[in-house]
Amino acid sequence: MVHEITEENFEAEVVQSDVPCVIEFTAGWCTFCDELVPVFEELSEQYGDDVKFCIVNTDEQKTLRIKFAVAAYPYIVMVHNKMKTPLFDEIVSAERLRERIDFVIGGGSAPTTRPL
Length: 116
Known about the structure:
alpha/beta, 6-stranded mixed sheet
């Protein structure tokens, strides 16, 4: 299941989540973003309740776009333990995304990991 995140449910769905959240920031005009929907659905099934997959429509959720400094689409970020780690700013395969998710969950981080 892929969750739709809004400014209203961000705190409950992402910040307070007990599991890592992988978020795709998208826009209505971004046809490349649509290509990631099946990837998110596939990985959501594979990870089950261990990782939450989310989508933010930045056309409607401008505050979240600013909070995460979204400058390219699609933009994929992982939020875990109130820390955000950029994962990709491009279309990726399920395999590449799974590898990066597992790396971050396993304790790896990037120099750009920052508090929310």
